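Renewal narrative, Specific Aim 1. Our central claim is that a sequence can be written position by position from structural information alone. The example that follows is taken directly from our test logs and has not been curated for this report. It begins with the structure tokens describing the chain, in the order in which they were read.
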């Protein structure tokens, strides 16, 4: 498998969770962030973008987006400054069911699609692209970033929307994220955790 790096944007305000530190919330006794980091344990470089918080995974690089809380494109910009692999995964910090098999599926799909394909993105059951459950050609992300100007406050689709993208069905619902307390409760129930 082609070597890859990972950027995990983890600096959002979690407004629908009342400002709780979403990556530090737990499912099955493990933080959401640590669950994501476990799924990509074989990455060359892993960068978590956001406030410092403890993690069970050693060797994780940390950086902050500018300005702090500046949104996903600002987080990607900060993370891209830290990675060197030709392929990079963008993974949300609140994906409790992301697994190593899916990470490898994304990397392999992008690698096998050839250089004209710039991204491999999971698509949920409702048909929505999940750009924070995706693999990208690092050079394509850098080129797209150079065209957006100031990244602060921009939606991620401004960065990724024009990339030549391979869409992969998320048949196991691993792109399920925890944006609300109800989402977190459902994740805990699905996981069999109290």
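The sequence written for that structure reads:
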């Amino acid at each position: 498998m082609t070597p890859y790096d990972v950027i995990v944007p983890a600096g959002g305000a979690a407004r629908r969770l009342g400002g709780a530190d979403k990556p530090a919330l737990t499912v099955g006794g493990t933080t959401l962030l640590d669950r994501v980091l476990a799924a990509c344990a074989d990455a060359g470089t892993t960068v978590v973008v956001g406030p410092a918080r403890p993690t069970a995974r050693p060797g994780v690089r940390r950086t902050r987006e500018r300005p702090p809380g500046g949104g996903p494109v600002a987080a990607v910009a900060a993370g891209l400054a830290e990675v060197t692999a030709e392929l990079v995964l963008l993974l949300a910090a609140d994906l409790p069911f992301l697994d190593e098999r899916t990470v490898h599926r994304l990397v392999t799909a992008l690698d096998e699609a050839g250089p004209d394909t710039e991204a491999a993105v999971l698509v949920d059951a409702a048909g929505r692209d999940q750009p924070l459950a995706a693999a990208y050609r690092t050079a394509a992300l850098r080129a797209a970033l150079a065209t957006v100007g100031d990244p602060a406050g921009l939606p991620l689709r401004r960065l990724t929307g024009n990339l030549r993208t391979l869409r992969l069905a998320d048949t196991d619902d691993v792109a399920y994220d925890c944006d609300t307390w109800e989402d977190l409760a459902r994740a805990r129930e699905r996981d069999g955790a109290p």
